[in-house]
Amino acid sequence: MNRERCSATVITCNEARNLRDCLATLAWADEIVVVDSGSTDGTLEIAREHTDRVFVHPWPGHLEQKNYAVDRAAHPWVFSLDADERVPPALADRILEVLAAPAADGYTFPRRNYFLGAWLRHGGWYPDRVLRLFRKDRGRFGGVNPHDRVILASGRAAGIEVPIEHFTYVSLGQYVAKQSLYADIAARGRVESGRASRVGAWRLGAKPAGKFLETYVWKRGFLDGVPGFVAAMGAAFAAYLREARVWELQRTSSMRDEPAARPPAA
Predict the structure, then answer these.
(1) Residue 73 in 3-state DSSP?
(2) What is the dihedral of CA 241, 243, 247, 248, to 10 degrees?
(3) Which CATH architecture has domain 6-168?
(4) Hey, where are the domains in the chain?
(5) Which pTM was predicted?
């Protein structure tokens, strides 16, 4: 079957636990590009088992690293996958069908999220659509770190309804640590770009409460049982950490800007 050629891209850092399974599901691609930011756990060796297109590049940020990988892609179409994601056989077949006669410039996918031993179906965790297949000359990663997304400069996007599988967190400790890391990255990005509103006590309380109600009640996370409750509490905790970190950064900056205190008059 004649079709458009496609490069699959993956960014990594100490992903030995995930990478072999991830890359095995990309065998349908015409090339696999892996960009690593300094792994020490055998990730590079696993990557080289599957492709000779392996690059080491210091970490500049999520969207910047993904764009670096896109720039190394040799083919006109790019499919971007995270190391903890998988392409099931039905999805691989559907992507190849689409590439035989593309009707759009980018394609979105639902994502099934496996969270602490359960597939989440509610709470904003499904369908969790992401744009991952796109023409290289039309799409780039944008957004705000760490929540990058593909933005099409021109053209239109269509949907593929077969989901990507996302194996998110294997332990509560990993979940909490990742929420803390992402909250710090997001807070720094907001403050440095000047987009951060002034944070007070009301906001510190309202933002987490609102996030919990959104995910657990409005988006029906309660239908996922205990994992749904844990996920909703985690989202609320992440919202709190993000706002508290913004407050801390604003306070530190304000203290630096204050004039030095004068000694009391004699």
Answers:
(1) coil
(2) 20
(3) Alpha-Beta Complex (3.90)
(4) 6-168, 171-256
(5) 0.88
